[in-house]
Amino acid sequence: MLVSDQVGMPASSKSAAGRPVAGKPADLVTAQGVRMVYTSRKAELVTALDDVSFGIAEGEFIALLGPSGCGKTTLLKILTGTLKRTSGRVTMRGQPLEGPRPDIGRVFQAPVLLAWRSVLDNILLPIELGEGRLQRRDYEARARNYLKMVGLEGFETKYPHELSGGMQQRVAIGRSLIRDPAMLLMDEPFGALDAMTRDLMNVELLRIWQASRKTIVLVTHSIAEAVFLADRVFVMTPRPGRLSEIIPIDLPRPRHLEMINSPEFGHYVRRIGRHFAAQSSDAGTAA
Amino acid sequence: MNEGTRTPIEIAQSLLLLAGLLAAWEFAVVWLDISPILLPAPSAVAISLFNGIKSGLLIKHFGVTFFETMAGFLLGSVAGLICGGLIAQSRPVERLLYPYVIAFQTIPKVAIAPLIVIWFGYGVASKVVIAATIAFFPVLANTIVGLRSVPADQMELMAAFMATRSQTLWKVRVPQALPFILVGLDVGAVLAVIGAVVGEFVSAKEGLGFQILQSGFSLDTAGVFAALVLLAVMGIAIHLAMAFLRKKVLYWVDDVSPVNFSG
Questions:
Q1: Which one in A26, A77, A178, A272 has a CA-CA gap of 20 to 30 Å to B94?
Q2: Residue A280: what pLDDT?
Q3: What band does A6 get if pLDDT is binned at 50, 70 and 90?
């Protein structure tokens, strides 16, 4: 049932949908042999990422799963273009990725809203920065549309401090969508929320994903969250950060919260959980 | 200090305390038969204040000191904003200069007042310069600290959205610095009053500082107090104006605790 793609043997196996796995031009994004080495304060070399290769097809939902320190966020920053990789190849639509691009949206762990801007102004910030102030009006209708999509209709003129944490993160998602990017990169977007709100936000996210048909790469350290959301789970392991396994999740869509109790769901969670239990005991892999 | 949430009852309590203290002072002076040269009764101060205002003498001195304060504050804070903005543009420059900013901040500017009088003459100009020098540093320090107070994730956000340097400055760093800058302006404005008065102490022909010295020399202690009352009114008015400005500008913050230099 489960196909696992070992790193170092790209394109040797196919995912459940029969897609090429790495390095094929059909993929929206590909990474090949990506390596990231930091110099620590004690002038030691720290390998944050080692030989990471994968391919992501258009419209796919990918979960980057792993304990803290496995390089998930580093990988996401490299995909965003805000962090220069030490070596390796990353392409988007067949072209090398050498910096931030307008067709990649980013959602951070914290909402990172600008407190002095209203909800609408926060969502339109990327337009102001990229297209210019004058173009704002053309995008206002779209901004309102996305506000509706993330369930914040009527909150246009509110300020961030007037919203709850979950609502703020929805605004951040709206902001990441405003330039209609092909891909959304999300770094534990709901990590700061309580468990109940987090479940609801995940359902919301799936709804938004289905409505917008974006490619999503979401970083998480929750196995259940990864299994619930993703088409494929990229399992990462630390020291050095490696992509050790790619696990397709063949659960039907649309997914509902009740599915968490299904035997198939439990099967995937145990399957991935065993992976980490074998790796180390201190990893934060609790669902 | 007292902006925002005070109930009418709290305000009434404050006023009652003041009235009580003034009454105690008045009775103490009368009962203990204290010489008016040592300590005039509040009523004597009030009479002196009234006469001074009626004759226009205190109004004139108030106007002079107020002008010196405002001109000095304007000069010093504009210079502080510009220098702070420039220094914060470059990390190496900032690292190089910031220790000196702190060092100069700790020098009592009052001590160089005589020097400034020598350089800028005995008129209004020297007082404006002293007030400006004192107002300059809190604005400068708060501008620098404010501009570099931007959280790392906001910088990464701007990078991910491909913001230019000037976009990052005007859309994130400046708004982020505003709470700090406004505290700097508040402190600077109140300190500018001190600067102007110290300048007048050193040498002047007019102003409330001059009036205090004159009254002191002629043992008119009530006159000294009358001038002090006007100075206090000026300081409070300036602080309230700044608090009002802060509330208007910073509609998005409830509380900030930036560096608060004084002295």
A1: A77
A2: 53
A3: very low
Instruction: Indicate yes or no: CB of A129 within 8 angstroms of CB of B154.
Output: no
Which stretches does DSSP call E strand in chain B?
Answer: none
Distances (CA, A) of A246 to A3, A27, A52, A250, B179: 8, 16, 11, 13, 48
How far apart CA B186 and CA B28 sit, in angstroms, is 37
Residues in chain A with CB shorter than 8 Å from the CB of B252 are 115-116, 159-161
Type of residue at B100: Y
List, for residues B74-131, the tens digit of each pLDDT value. Answer: 999 999 999 999 998 888 888 888 888 888 878 888 888 999 999 999 899 999 999 9
Contact B153 A80 (CB under 8 A): no
Interchain CB distance below 8 Å, A108 and B157:
yes
Nearest neighbour of A129 by CB, restricted to B153, B156, B161: B161
Residue listed under structure tokens 């504009």: B78
Helix (H) or strand (E) holding B188: helix B174-202
* CA distance, residue A112 to nearest chain B CA (Å): 6
Q: Classify A81 in phi/psi space as left (phi over 0), alpha (psi -120 to 50) or beta.
A: left
Q: What ipTM score was computed for the predicted complex, to two decimals?
A: 0.78
